[in-house]
Specification:
InterPro entries: LytR/CpsA/Psr_CW_biosynth, LytR_CpsA_psr. Belongs to the LytR/CpsA/Psr (LCP) family. It comes from Knoellia locipacati. The structure is a single chain. The chain has 316 residues and is an alpha/beta fold. The chain has a single domain (2-306), classed as Aminopeptidase (3-Layer(aba) Sandwich). It contains eleven helices and 15 strands. The chain has helices at 2-13, 18-30, 114-134, 147-155, 183-191, 200-218, 221-224, 227-238, 249-258, 291-303, 306-313, and strands at residues 32-34, 43-45, 51-53, 60-67, 80-86, 93-97, 102-105, 111-113, 140-145, 159-163, 177-181, 242-244, 267-271, 274-279, 285-289. The chain has a seven-stranded mixed sheet with strand order 1-12-9-4-5-6-13, sandwiched between helices. A four-stranded mixed sheet has the order 8-7-15-14. A two-stranded antiparallel sheet has the order 2-3. The longest helix has 21 residues, at 114-134. The radius of gyration is 19 Å and the shape is globular.
């Protein structure tokens, strides 16, 4: 979602007239809409089984779902689950990464890994699962795939990103420290999980670092002032993007323009609180939810006090 926001921020920054109209039309044609929100509306199921309506919180909450299905694969997997909170004052953006192995209660089913919710019931069931977990209304949903990372990276001429640990071999090798990546290398960078020290947790941090690096590169004069590069980026950022039926291009553009003063230091990445690792009854590895920490996160989202939560939970 932040990369799409970047695309629309670019539209707000470029000169008006025919070129801006052309880019806007391209984005509008690329983005499609589906039923991604629960038909029951914003509700949560309490431990006693009763259902309560969730009040509208402060600010906006966007659920971003990313799929890492390779060509030829038909199984639906939600390999990226990120909740983006845009506060009412538009002075910051918080991105909360939910590890795919987080062990949670899925409505209508037994406890399972959170990415199983998407496999069982698509985006609507994943939304319901998160609303139950946090007690927070999710306003909008967007889903895309990892291939967009490659295309966007190539569109801006590559990115420079920091890696916490080395991985890969040959041309796909990533060294600890700073790396200059093209599209294929970026795709390998954000996909890697098995060789990293904390598996999906480490991969989540890599994805966060990459998204931030790509956003920064997107908003540089080298992209904004280059019509060819700019057109390629807007096309790549919006191709294969699906949003819920309540979210149209006009709303996305308005949200983006309201965030045009956001800088890299205003973008905060957080991993949803978990207390450790364990084993599910079926023998699979799981991440155990930190119940108190999740309750605190939900309260911060509802009351639009994520700045305070981030200060308390994120080590500089």
């Amino acid at each position: 979602m932040l990369l799409v926001v970047s695309a629309f921020v670019v539209l707000a920054l470029v000169a008006g007239g025919g070129f801006a109209f052309f880019l806007n039309q391209k984005a509008s044609r690329n983005i499609s809409q589906e039923d991604l929100l629960p038909s029951s509306g914003p509700s949560a199921t309490l431990p006693d089984g009763s259902v309560v309506e969730l009040p509208k919180g402060v600010g906006q909450n966007y659920l971003i779902i990313g799929s890492d299905a390779r060509p030829g694969e038909t199984a639906s997997r939600s390999d990226v689950i990120v909740l983006v909170h845009v506060p009412e004052d538009k002075k910051a953006v918080q991105l909360i990464h939910f590890p795919r192995d987080l062990y949670v209660q899925i409505p209508g089913r037994k406890k399972d890994k959170i990415n199983a919710a998407y496999a069982y019931g698509g985006a609507p069931l994943l939304v319901s699962t998160l609303q139950n977990l946090l007690g927070v209304k999710i306003d909008h949903v967007a889903k895309t795939d990892f291939e967009g990372f490659r295309n966007m990276t190539n569109a801006v001429g590559g990115v420079r990103v920091y890696a916490e640990e080395a991985s890969g071999e040959g041309r796909m090798a990533v060294r600890e420290g700073w790396n200059d990546l093209d599209g294929e290398q970026a795709l390998a960078f954000v996909r890697e999980r098995k060789t990293l020290s904390e598996g999906d947790i480490s991969r989540g941090r890599r994805q966060q670092a990459f998204i931030k690096a790509l956003m920064i590169k997107t908003l540089t004069p080298a992209t904004i002032a280059n019509p060819v590069r700019l057109t390629k980026f807007v096309d790549a950022a919006t191709s294969n993007l699906v949003v819920d039926k309540a979210l149209d291009v006009g709303q996305m553009r308005s949200e983006a323009i309201s965030l045009r003063n956001i800088r890299s230091s205003d973008i905060v990445f957080i991993t949803a609180p978990f207390s450790g690792y364990g084993t599910a009854p079926d023998g699979g590895s799981i991440d155990i939810v930190d119940e108190a920490g999740m309750a605190a996160l939900g309260k911060a989202l509802r009351t639009d006090t994520m700045d305070d939560y981030a200060d308390a939970s994120v080590t500089p």
